[in-house]
Amino acid sequence: MILRLFQVTTRPGKEAEFSRFFHEVAIPLMNTTDGIVSVLPGAARVDSPREFAFVMVWRDLDALKAFVGEDYTTPHIDPAEDALVESRSIRHYDLAEI
């Protein structure tokens, strides 16, 4: 399984608008995406009001690529969030057995 860590920093002043997008669009989308085993959304905190994140566990690399395309190392974003986001990062890990 693949662990995918997606982090976003919003543009200044766009926190509330991105928060609505995050809760109303992004979380429901991730929760219904085929190939995702687990989704842990991270909403902004008082000490970091512009930062949001997703930790996703994907069944396998093929499932991830089916959602984002062959270039899975580039952050996949919804066009609606582009004007709200200052920066984004993506990291991938093999899920370790516990």
Q: What number of domains?
A: 1
Number of helices: 2
CATH topology type: Alpha-Beta Plaits
CATH class: Alpha Beta
Shape: globular
Pfam families: ABM
Domain ABM: 1-71
InterPro entries: ABM_dom, Dimeric_a/b-barrel
Protein name: ABM domain-containing protein
Defining traits:
98 residues, alpha+beta
Outline the structure in words.
Strand 2 (36-42) and strand 3 (51-58) form a beta hairpin. The protein is of the alpha+beta class. The chain has one domain (2-94): 2-Layer Sandwich (Alpha-Beta Plaits), CATH 3.30.70.100. The model has no long low-confidence stretch (mean pLDDT 93). The chain is globular and about 40 Å long. The protein has helices at residues 15-31, 61-68; strands at 2-10, 36-42, 51-58, 85-94. It comes from Salipiger bermudensis (strain DSM 26914 / JCM 13377 / KCTC 12554 / HTCC2601).
Précis, in short:
With 98 residues, this protein is of the alpha+beta class. The protein has 2 helices and 4 strands, in the order βαββαβ. It has helices at residues 15-31, 61-68, and strands spanning 2-10, 36-42, 51-58, 85-94.
How would the blueprint of this fold be written?
Layout: E1 2-10, H1 15-31, E2 36-42, E3 51-58, H2 61-68, E4 85-94
Antiparallel strand pairs: 1-3, 1-4, 2-3
